[in-house]
Amino acid sequence: MANAASRRMAGGGGASFAPHRFDRSDLAVAAVLLAICAVLYWDTTRWPAVPETLAQNAPPTTFPRLLIGSVAIMALMLPFERVMKERNGGSLLIGGQARARPIVFVTAAVITLAVYGLPILGALPVMIATSVLLPLLWGERRYLPILLFGVGLPIAVTLLFALGLKVNLGFGWAGALFR
């Protein structure tokens, strides 16, 4: 019995029991993200209640809280990513190796334009344009899947939120066509 344990510790067969450490930068990023999530969630508790005459199915705090909760869950998983990768024999070599490529900034610009275009053009046309344009910018050249994704996903999201959850999406100029 003691012989098998000493072989495992020496690397001779069996699983290794060497402890894996958390990366301090991962812990710091997770802590900062969790702190931001806590502040943002607290801020949603201070929002005024919507009058019954204006209320829809979901209160205005629902979507931000779901988003904040999703970010918090991912932040909690962040420190474990490196540990799990190392246990499987891999390595995460991230951070500081190279500058961000220009496509990162182009993507940020497209998303920023989409946010500012929402009130003017409406949710559906902006989602379709963004869902088609981003894969093309990223180098995807299979046009049929891009078209199916670029039209199908925004329609599904619109149906889910507008019809299923009764959320009033901004329809902008495009909404005037359907009035």
From TrEMBL:
Q: Which residues form the DUF1468 domain?
A: 28-169
One matching Pfam family? TctB
- Coiled coil feature spans: none
Keyword terms, alphabetized: Membrane, Transmembrane, Transmembrane helix
Q: Which residues cross the membrane?
A: 25-42, 62-83, 104-137, 143-163
Q: Which InterPro entries match?
A: DUF1468
Task: Report what the protein is called.
Answer: Tripartite tricarboxylate transporter TctB family protein
Q: Which organism is it from?
A: Propylenella binzhouense
